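Support request, please re-run this one:
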Amino acid sequence: MPSDRFDHVFVEPGSFDATVAFYRDGLGWQELFSWGIQGEPRGIGLSGGGVRIVIAERHAADDHSKSHGINGTRPTLHLVVDDLDARHAELAARGLVLFPPATTHWGTRWFVVQDPDGNLIAFEQARGN
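Re-run finished. Output below.
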């Protein structure tokens, strides 16, 4: 039985400022980290205690992380796995994988699957694990 654990939801919103205001100011979620200065695309990680969200403005996916632009403003669910290559092999054998494992710019390796409704699920493992 796989041990997929929830990590975070990724959102590339229509309005970064409105979305951050909703989660941070409206819901009272706490900032974990942020990026983007002087005209660079902005991003922020927030925690509501038992759930985390990463909100990012549209940005180039130079690392070929693959989920950029596939679903527009639909969220991507991120799951943490203990053995990325084994989980990839299992899901690839079932024909479910959209993209093979790749290194991300935020310090993980991942691959992405898509459910029948077009929702993206990213399986991730920290680099070096």
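The chain has a mean pLDDT of 83. DSSP finds two helices and eight strands in the chain.
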